[in-house]
């Protein structure tokens, strides 16, 4: 058995389309309107999403309605109108309520697990149950310094392009070159990270097991987890994870923001979000690669 062709309809896409139609009709899904600008930097075509004026007004209203104190957990319970289906026995697949790009899914643990703790084989099994059906980009923000917005563990999967009418995966060509040359890092990224090809697998279970082993290796290679006797499975330092059917990348994080611009894992895939033209001007003037360098760690940190 091999992964489904991206040109073949899958049960996942059928469930996603039905859920999206239901969620839109009931107001459960609230897409964030943006325009997408392509900003070239270092040979990479970054997709920069700029919030529309309507989206900025909605964000301001949302901030006004927020109260002091802990925020409720949106995943316990999750909104049934956003429920796409199961992802293994321990995870639920949901639509991202406030999506910037289409076909953006969340893979959420059914019981509370902290976003900062190390991912488990069950997490990778849940991701690969979906990735085996449909090709896409999976990612994870471990901790607030890595751009995590909720403390309840949620992995994410984008099936659609990161920029409508632009590059589907801006960093894709750089990753292909790295795979062809058997590189362990992308020359285009001026910051600490670890990149590795995934070997082919016979089924989703084997792919998940390979990914879980490689994940542990990449965390260790970047000094994100303690090593040696008695270290166990200690919580890692902040990082972002990106995963496709063919490669995995781990990026250590120093901070969440470059000025007012917040960066999560999608930044290292070549997609960034800014709230207004002033933030776009800042990002364009300094360059997306400088933004990523600022929120990451130096290449020589190990």
Annotation keywords:
single chain, 302 residues, alpha+beta, HIT family, subunit A, 8-stranded antiparallel β-sheet, 3-stranded mixed β-sheet, 13 strands
Instruction: Name the shape in a single word.
Output: globular
Number of helices: 8
Distance between the ends: 40 Å
Structural class: alpha+beta
Kindly estimate the percentage of residues that lie in beta strands according to DSSP: 15-25%
Helix percentage range: 25-40%
The CATH homologous superfamily is termed ATP adenylyltransferase
Number of strands: 13
Strand arrangement, major sheet: 3-4-5-7-6-9-10-8
Assembly of the depicted chains: single chain
The major pleated sheet works out as: 8 strands, antiparallel
Computed CA radius of gyration, to the nearest angstrom: 19 Å
Count of domain modules: 1
Low-confidence stretches: none
Overview of this structure, please?
The structure is a single chain. The protein has 8 helices and 13 strands. Helix content is 29%, strand content 22%. The chain is of the alpha+beta class and 302 residues long. Strand 11 and strand 12 form a beta hairpin. The strands form 3 sheets. It has an 8-stranded antiparallel β-sheet with strand order 3-4-5-7-6-9-10-8, with helices on both faces. A 3-stranded mixed β-sheet has the order 1-2-13. The longest helix is centred in the C-terminal third of the chain and has 18 residues, at 204-221. The chain has one domain: HIT family, subunit A (2-Layer Sandwich).
């Amino acid at each position: 058995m091999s992964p489904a062709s991206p040109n073949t309809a899958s049960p996942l896409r059928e469930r996603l389309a039905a859920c999206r139609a239901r969620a839109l009709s009931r107001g459960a899904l609230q897409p964030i309107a943006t325009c997408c600008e392509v900003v070239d930097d270092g040979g990479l075509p970054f997709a920069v999403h700029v919030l529309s004026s309507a989206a900025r007004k909605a964000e301001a209203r949302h901030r006004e309605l927020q109260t002091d104190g802990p925020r409720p957990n949106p995943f316990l319970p999750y909104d049934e109108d956003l429920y796409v289906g199961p992802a293994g026995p321990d995870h639920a697949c949901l639509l991202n309520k406030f999506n910037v790009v289409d076909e953006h899914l969340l893979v959420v643990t059914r019981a509370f697990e902290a976003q900062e703790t190390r991912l488990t084989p069950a997490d990778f099994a849940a991701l690969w149950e979906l990735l085996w059906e449909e090709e896409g980009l999976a990612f994870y923000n471990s901790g607030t310094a890595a751009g995590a917005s909720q403390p309840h563990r949620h992995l994410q999967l984008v099936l659609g392009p990161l920029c409508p009418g632009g590059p589907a995966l801006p960093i894709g060509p750089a990753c292909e070159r790295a795979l062809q040359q058997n590189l362990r890092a992308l020359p285009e990224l001026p910051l600490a990270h670890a990149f590795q090809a995934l070997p082919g697998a016979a089924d989703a279970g084997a792919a998940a097991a390979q990914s879980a082993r490689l994940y542990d290796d990449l965390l260790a290679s970047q000094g994100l987890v303690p090593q040696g006797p008695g270290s166990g499975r200690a919580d890692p330092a902040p990082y972002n994870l990106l995963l496709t059917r063919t490669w995995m990348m781990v990026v250590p994080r120093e901070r969440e923001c470059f000025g007012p611009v917040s960066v999560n894992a999608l930044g290292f895939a070549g997609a960034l979000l800014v709230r207004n033209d002033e933030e776009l001007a800042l990002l364009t003037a300094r360059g997306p690669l400088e933004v990523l360098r600022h929120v990451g760690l130096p290449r020589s940190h190990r």
